[in-house]
Write a structure and sequence with these properties.
Length: about 270
């Protein structure tokens, strides 16, 4: 039933997303186990792009909240307000040629995964099932995944500059100061680490590694987002029926999966 429902809903959303730059709000019965009677999908700033930041959209005047802001992937500014309104004070120019990109959550130019990192482009997002997914690196973006024939296609969508995506509701309904933006939403301590998405256990991620092309390449471990079937949540490395999972007490592992004889904290 999940696939049939999504085949009806998601392509309609994507068609509207690609063909119109007006704000589009669509009400549909919830197809993905989100705990609401209805899900509201809001698609704003509808120009699809693989480049990470649009300086016209990312401005303190539009965001109207304090704190660091990546106006571009090269420029970090601090948003402040005076009697004339909101404006940005340039803080630092990032050396993108050497792999340092603006990362507002960290407040620095960084080589870490973030909205501006090359791995964070839309072309690199993959999933196993159709549906709506959070962007792992940018709390103000999300992905619509749908089937084109037998091919699963994912396109990117943007929340309004004053809102962030909430994976628990499938809506752009929280502020850029929420935990979804200020706290890292995934941990990839080693390749093969697997865990539920913190705000929606129907979604989980597997930590993968980039392929080393030459001796000087740095291996980057990053999350691959997946989804359980409708009515399931991810618990203890498995997708389980949500009603059954509530009765299961999660077991805490004391060893590393890649080194089963190594007790955590001692290796």
């Amino acid at each position: 039933m999940l696939t049939i429902e999504l085949l009806r809903i998601v392509p309609i959303l994507v068609l509207l997303f690609l063909s119109s730059c007006r704000t589009t709000t669509i009400h549909r019965n919830n197809p993905m186990g989100i705990p609401l009677n209805q899900t509201v999908y809001e698609m704003k700033n509808c120009k699809s792009r693989t480049s990470r930041l649009d300086s016209a959209a990312n401005s303190c005047l539009r965001r109207q909240s304090p704190g660091p802001l990546c106006e571009t992937c090269e420029l970090m500014s601090l948003c402040v307000k005076n009697s004339n309104g909101w404006f940005g004070i340039p803080l630092v120019s990032c050396d993108v040629k050497n792999g340092y990109y603006c990362n507002a959550r960290l407040g620095v130019c960084s080589k870490d995964l973030g909205p501006c990192h090359p791995l964070a482009t839309a072309d690199n997002f993959k999933s196993n099932l159709p549906g709506i997914f959070p962007d792992p690196y940018d709390c103000q973006r999300y992905y619509l995944c749908y089937y084109e024939g037998s091919t699963l296609t994912c396109v990117i969508a943007n929340c309004d500059v004053s809102k962030a995506f909430d994976a628990s509701t499938g809506q752009c309904s929280v502020s850029p100061q929420s935990a979804a933006c200020t706290q890292k939403q995934f941990e990839c301590p080693y390749v093969g680490h697997i865990a539920a998405w913190p705000t929606n256990p129907n979604i989980y991620y597997v930590c993968k590694a980039t392929v080393k092309q030459n001796i000087n390449d740095t291996i980057i471990i990053y999350p691959l987002l997946q989804r359980c079937s409708d009515g399931q949540i991810f618990v203890d490395s498995f997708c389980r029926d949500s009603s059954l999972s509530r009765r299961l007490a999660p077991a805490k592992s004391t060893t590393r999966p890649d080194r089963p004889n190594c007790v955590l904290g001692s290796c």
